[in-house]
Each structure stands twice: as C-alpha cells, then as structure tokens.
Design brief:
Helix content is about 35%, strand content about 20%. It is of the alpha/beta class. It is globular, with a radius of gyration of 19 Å.
Length: about 270
C-alpha cells in the first residue's frame, strides 16, 4: 500500500486547511516552509474563481503564509486550461470576476456577446437578470455550457449567499442543458494541477477538509488523500460516505511529524 513516505509532490486545499477566516491554521506556515526547503513541488488549490493567483497570494501573505502566485491553482485557471485544450482560440460569454476573465484572456480566449462558442459561469457578486438571460439565449442557440465550480452557496461574514451552482441550476432549468463542471469534485482539476507541476498521480498527495470534493476527487484522480479536521469535516461527516481517505489527521501540523503507525490509520483504510 502506498504511504506518505512515497509522496514526492503535494496538492492542498486552501480554506479549512491552511487558513480559516483569514487566520493561519497552526502548522500551515511550517508545512509550506518545509516544502520550500525540501524543494517539494506543490500547489494550493481553490474552487473559488473570483480572485487571480496574485490576489490570493497577497491574501495569504496578510495571513502570514508565504505562497507565491505560481503555486496557486484556481478553478478559473483549470477552466481556462480545459477550454484551451478543447478549442484553442475560442470565444466565450462569461459571467464572473477578474480571476476568471484574466485566466481566459491568458489562455487566448476572446470575450464576446456575439455567437460565443461557450457560456462560462463562475463566482461573482454581480449576477444580474440581463446577463443570465443572455447566457440562456446563447446556450439555446448552441453555445456549450461550462461552470467553474459546483458550489451552491458561499460563506460571507453575514451568512451564506447563493453561488455558482445555484445560478447554474437556474440556467439549466431554463435551457434543459446541464453544465460541464471543471472544478472539484471533477478530478479534471487535479489532473491539470498535476500537469502544471509535472507531477504523477502515483507520487502525489492531496490534503483537503471536504469529503465530497477534496477526498472523492483525489481518490478518482489516483492520489494519496489526507483529510484534515480543521475545516467542515468531523468523524460523523466521514461516516456518511462509502469511501475513505488514506489518512485522517487533526491538522496540517500532523504532517510535520513522522508518518503514523498502521494502528493509527482510520478504520477501513
């Protein structure tokens, strides 16, 4: 059985793993420093397509975590990478923020409201009736429907707000067309991340705090999976699913310690 000792590269989720409400999770800074000191290839992944890697690098720096922008992989970047592989130099009608539009521009895509090849929907706080109506009409006219991530809601200091998945459901209801989802839990996002750092699934680990995205996508991509309990998952949440991560640890601080004994592995692994 593959163990943590076999892992040469790491992918890690951001919120709930490295930071929580903009505060660093104990052990995160030390783990990042360990990877840098040992020249371990890694990427920080997020399903949030709103911000560019530069924005996110600055946000993490304010939390005391040193993550260069080239070490950040977002669902927007994965979406742009996917579209470039499918139809180089294509066109898209986009509902989203700078993280998404910048990624698509850099992938060689043209933003248009005239017969786009794709309708691409990402996270934004500026959804409006006119844009959604245009998206529906373009899809009905033959544009292919892509969304960056499936999250139905997103957190804010005042409570949850509707997110990409909710607005995608509205468009699906109006068009009868289901979108192709690029971000987690689609293992496509992990495969594009592996390509970004020249890693192989057999020697790469994924650290996450969600069973329904991080762990299941990691398993499907053939990665060594580590679930941390600093986010939304606890033992009760783990028991809800028919699959198991390779490891369950309290936090990333535990990844600085020697590999756990077999007796300490989660039941069923």
């Amino acid at each position: 059985m593959r163990t943590r000792a076999d892992i040469e590269c790491w992918l890690t989720d951001m919120d709930g793993v490295l930071v929580h409400e903009n505060r660093p999770i104990p052990g995160a800074a030390e783990l990042l420093a360990q990877w840098r000191d040992q020249a371990t290839p890694f990427l920080v992944l997020t399903n949030n397509p709103i911000f560019t890697p530069r924005d996110l690098s600055a946000r993490l720096a304010r939390s005391g975590l040193d993550v260069p922008e080239e070490r950040i992989w977002t669902s927007a970047l994965a979406t742009a990478d996917f579209l470039r592989s499918q139809l180089p130099g294509g066109t898209a009608f986009v509902i989203g923020e700078s993280g998404l539009t910048t990624a698509l521009h850099e992938a060689g895509y043209v933003m248009t409201e005239t017969q786009p090849d794709y309708v691409v929907v990402g996270e934004t706080r500026q959804y409006n009736f006119e844009a959604i109506t245009k998206a529906i009409r373009f899809i009905n006219d033959g544009a292919r429907f892509i969304i960056t991530n499936p999250d139905a809601t997103g957190p804010t200091p005042s409570g949850v707000v509707p997110a990409t998945g909710s607005f995608a459901a509205l468009i699906t209801r109006a068009t009868g067309k289901e979108p192709y989802v690029v971000g987690k839990p689609n293992p496509m996002m992990f495969r594009s991340a592996l390509n970004r750092i020249g890693a192989h699934s057999e020697t790469t680990g994924m650290i996450g705090d969600r069973m329904d995205t991080d762990v299941v996508a990691g398993i499907e991509a053939g990665l060594h999976t580590v679930l941390v309990l600093t986010g939304i998952s606890d033992q009760t949440e783990i028991e809800r699913y028919p699959f198991r991560p390779d490891e369950v640890v309290d936090s990333v601080a535990d990844l600085l310690a020697p590999e756990p004994l077999e007796s300490e592995m989660p039941e069923g692994v």
